[in-house]
Amino acid sequence: MAGVELLLPKEYGYVAFVLVFDCLSNLWMAAQVGKARKRFKVPYPTLYALESENKDAKLFNCVQVFPIFYTSIICSMLEKLMNF
Length: 84
Description:
Layout: H1 12-40, H2 57-82
Helix pairs in contact: 1-2
C-alpha cells in the first residue's frame, strides 16, 4: 500500500496560529466570566444577572456576553472575506 503524501503550503502555518490563538482567547474569556461570577456573586446556572437582584448586573452581563459577541464578530468577518 502506497503512503499518502500531504502537501500544505508554507503559509498554512498562519491558519494554525490563528486557530490556536482563537482557542486560547476563548479560554481566557471563559476564565474572565468565571472571575466575574465570583466578583459579582452571580451563581451558576444563572446566565444573566437581574438588576433587581444585583446592583452590578450590567457589568456582569457585559462580561458574560463578550465571548459570544467576539465569536460572532469573527464569524461575520470570515464570512465577508470568503464572499469578497
